[in-house]
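Justification of computing resources. Each target in the renewal requires a structure prediction run like the one illustrated here; the chain below, 549 residues long, is used simply to show the kind of job we budget for.
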Amino acid sequence: MARRRASRRAQRGQALLIALTVLILGTAWFTIGALGKAAPTQASREIRTGEALQAAKTALLAHVTQYAARDTTNEPGQLPCPESVTLANAGEANTSCSASLLVVGRLPWKTLGIDQLRDGDGEPLWYVMRGFRDPPINFGTPGQLSVNGSAVVAVVIAPGRPLNTAAQTGTPPAGCSKLDQFSAARNAAPLIPAHYLECGTATGSFSSPGDSLWTNDRVISITAAEWVDAIAGPVADRLRRQVAPALADWRANEADANWGERFLPAASTFSDPPTNSLCGTYGTREGLMPVARVASSTCTNWTGGNVTQLAGLLGSGSCGPFGANYQCQFTNLSVALLEARIQARAPNTGQSLRRRISVGNITVSNGGTVSNYSLSLDPSDGDADIDFKVSMPPLSIGAVVTVTIPNLPDANLLSDPRMAWFVNNDWARYTFYAIAPGSQLDAPSGCWGPGDSDCMTLNGFPSSNGASNDKRFVVALMGRALATQSHSCATDADSDGNMDCDERNQYIESRTNWMTYHQDRIEAVYNDRLATCPFKHVDHNGTDVDLCN
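Resulting structure tokens:
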């Protein structure tokens, strides 16, 4: 009996010892875990900061990509504004921000469609941008911020914990200043960037110096090359879905209605794209698209005007440009009815995107009237000729008559919403343009279907996109320069009469010859993206849809 009682006491003692051991171990693990959470290492904070910065950059590039792809976006490549420092609509991009000045604010995480990102010290990320808001935005738009001496498009900054350098001895490095970020109103609106960011925020010049006495900011940037790669695909897609069909419509409808012939304008002779006139050159089938507008060019302005006496007596007449118009003047030397004939020529009309003017657009001073009006396009050279008669009522001797002829206005195509984004942002300077023989003005025969000798060939697309050898034109979005290219113009070595610049080596890879192009996979040695007509695709219902025909 006594032996059983001793055994039970021993068992209870062992159980107590086991329970005490479990309690001690649990307390130890809890303490270690709590200490780990309360005091993260510098390395873990840096890892969290790096992950947040990379996620922010990815989200910004994704936003730029999807925004560029929208049919209604007028500025493909536009960057979102930062969040307002007033904290109104927190997390959302400000509705407007300067297109030319430095703009600083927190990352607009709601607009980007992500959770709010914080650095390793728990601080929300900041975002800095300059430019990339208003047209023109294109591959040539330069980065206006500087990180470690290199121009970049945008910057995301992890501000880190607040610093107090006001009492530091010594002189701050260039771009830095002494300041105390421990302010009671630090997180009150409007936020003051200097309470979070150091060294370079005000000038748009940033560096990544690591921890120092003066700054603990961490910076990640978006380079121009990364921005170009993000929007190249969407811009090319819009060339196929919008620009190419709009060009096809011009040929089939507007050109025919205005000038009585279905044609595409000749190309602007290829030269350094940023300075090219974008005025077409008669007979040139390859180059840049001739989208120069009448308000910013003299491609098609009236010239060579003359005044001829028909009835009565008039002093010698003269014609010349006058602002956005063309004017002819003559002096009355007769007391009887006065009649004169006016003629002028608008060169390159068939190489440009222009529409007609009517007799009602011409004004004559002193009550004169216009009759016998004619406006025609000469297919042999693409020039337009205007010819009409001016009749005047009795005038006092010496009265001066002024006849005003507007320059030919832009074709409706240039303001077509499908085309306006392309024209307004100067994408023509980054888009190669080639037309088939059957698409030229006064072509001896047309491009009517697959295999026609007056059609171009575009290889590389799936058969579901249609035939390869029935193309009336090809446009190629020229990507950024490849490793083997300099994007600089030199004398055309092949003397084919179509180019002044060695286009095949320096700008485009897709050209096989003047009649044949090929779409290849986008990679390190090929980045042209092509659009053409006719072209079709298979929609989500499996139905063939003609994008243009």
